[in-house]
Design goal:
The chain has about 140 residues and is α+β, with helices and mostly antiparallel strands. It has two domains: about 1-35, no CATH class; about 35-110, no CATH class. It has two helices and three strands. The protein has helices at about 1-30, 80-85, and strands spanning about 35-40, 45-50, 60-65. Strands 1-2-3 form a three-stranded antiparallel beta sheet, with helices on one face. A hairpin with a 5-residue loop joins strand 1 (about 35-40) and strand 2 (about 45-50).
């Protein structure tokens, strides 16, 4: 019986943190409802959370920004400094640690392969083979 009470208590914490609609939306998007403390936010709007009551490897997570309405997200949207913290390479989040900024280091960009904004090269050579068009003489 105490296991069920604990589950209800965790559900209450999640609803308190996200609201009823936010908790249902989170359950719909990720198939789970998590609650935790907000550790920080990056410049792209992603929010990072931690709850040490969860198992190692599941206790840190990211909620991606709603720039794509929360549907089109992937791991390349996480900058390198937050990747270190998410994957337990370091214990301190980038908000608490001073990271070295090099001049030669490029700004983080997400991988857009397979999306509409992907780069398509333009061919300047004429094709050697022409496509067959049925019905053309």
């Amino acid at each position: 019986m105490s296991l069920y009470l604990e589950k209800l208590r965790h559900l209450r914490y999640a609803i308190k943190q996200h609201g009823v609609f936010g908790s249902v939306l989170q359950l719909f998007r990720t198939d789970e409802i998590k609650w935790g403390t907000l550790v920080g936010q990056d410049k792209f709007g992603n929010k990072y959370y931690q709850n040490k009551l969860y198992f190692m490897g599941r206790s840190r997570w990211v909620y991606y920004s709603d720039k794509n309405f929360g549907w089109d997200y992937d791991g390349s949207q996480v900058p390198a400094e937050w990747h270190r913290w998410l994957h337990y390479i370091t214990d301190e989040p980038p908000t608490k640690s001073d990271l070295v900024k090099y001049d030669w280091l490029a700004e983080h960009q997400e991988n857009v392969t397979g999306q509409k904004s992907m780069y398509y090269p333009f061919s300047t050579t004429t094709p050697k083979i022409k496509a067959w068009k049925p019905g053309a003489k």
